[in-house]
Structures are given as C-alpha cells and as structure tokens.
Amino acid sequence: MSDKRQGKLIVFSAPSGSGKTTIVRHLLKQEELNLEFSISATSREKRGKEKHGKDYYYLSLAAFKNKIKGDEFLEWEEVYRDNFYGTLKTEVERIWAKGKHVIFDIDVSGGLRIKRKFPEQTLAVFVKPPDLNELVKRLKERGEESEEKISMRVSKAPAELATAPLFDEIVVNSDLDTALKNAYNLVSEFVKS
C-alpha cells in the first residue's frame, strides 16, 4: 500500500447480532470524527435491498480468488464455505486520499489482521453482547435469516467472544445508548491523538 498513511483505521468487530453495525452507522453520522466506511468485498450473493458499491463489492468466487492471488486484499477470510469476505487495499487508499479515517465493520479475525498490520494506526474495538441468549434473540428479531444460518452464527460466537481480550477496547452493548456513547468517546479520543 502507498505511503500516504495519514489516516487512522478504526475496526469494530463482534459476533453477529452484537450491534456493531448499529454503532458504526451512528459513528459515521458524527461529522466531526471525519470517518468513512470501508466497503468490504464478498463472494456471497446480495441479500434483500443490498447494493453493489454501497453495502459490499460483490465479486464472483473466481474474481475474489484472483484478487487474493494478486495480493489485492489488506485482509480476507473464507467465513463460510465459498463465502469470502475481505478488504481491498484500494478501498483504504480511496478513503485516505480524501483525508478521512477508515471505519470497518468486519469479523473478528479480519479486524485482528488489520490491527497486526497497522498496530499504531488502528483502534480495534470489540462489541460484546450482554450474553448468548440476547444474541440469539437479536438475530431472530432481524428476521433476515433461516434458523440454520442463525445456528451457524451462534455456534461461532463463543470462539469470537474468546478473542475479545486481543482488542484494544471492549464495548458491552447491553444498553444501546450507553454503548453508542462509549464507542463515540473511544473513537473521538483516538482520532485526535
């Protein structure tokens, strides 16, 4: 990646249903933080009203694998079989070129990989649900996925929760307003440092 590394990287990771996307959306609305969302690439199909270039960069499985071979990703992972997700280097460069900080809403291992590659420039925040029962309840309330998909997500949660101590900060999302305030304070301090 280019040496124009003025920007900072803010990573939010969590098990599905923890509320990280809600927190990231809230932070993006706070103009004084000067954040822009890093759009991930994925090989999965679009869901519902998702749009290419807004929610994800949708790539075919073959195109995704070609970009891996070409070392075009900052980080990538096969989250489920043939379901790849990753951060294109060009996406981070695009945001830095605008003079903004990059905010990520990505899975735990991707978040930790970014932190390892840019230890000084990255704030890695883990969003923790109050407990597993609440996580299941939130996933079901979304109404977006089959019971099978929900069980797959829930079965990954204990391993994801075990990585929380590897992050710089942990925000417990038992009360959304408190979680939003805590996340804002952490990011605000980090971008000013």
Helix and strand arrangement:
Blueprint: E1 9-13, H1 20-28, E2 35-37, E3 41-42, E4 57-58, H2 61-69, E5 73-80, E6 83-88, H3 89-97, E7 101-105, H4 108-117, E8 122-128, H5 132-142, H6 147-162, E9 169-172, H7 176-192
Parallel strand pairs: 1-7, 1-8, 2-7, 3-4, 8-9
Antiparallel strand pairs: 3-6, 5-6
Helix pairs in contact: 5-6
Largest sheet: 5 strands, parallel
- Main sheet: strand order: 2-7-1-8-9
Q: What is the name of the CATH topology? A: Rossmann fold
The fourth-level CATH homologous superfamily is: P-loop containing nucleotide triphosphate hydrolases
Provide structural commentary:
The chain has 193 residues and is of the alpha/beta class. It has one domain: Rossmann fold (3-Layer(aba) Sandwich). Helices cover 42% and strands 22% of the residues. It contains seven helices and nine strands. The strands form two sheets. Strands 2-7-1-8-9 form a five-stranded parallel beta sheet, sandwiched between helices. Helix 5 packs antiparallel against helix 6. The longest helix has 17 residues. The protein starts with 8 loop residues before the first strand and ends with a helix. The model has no long low-confidence stretch (mean pLDDT 91).
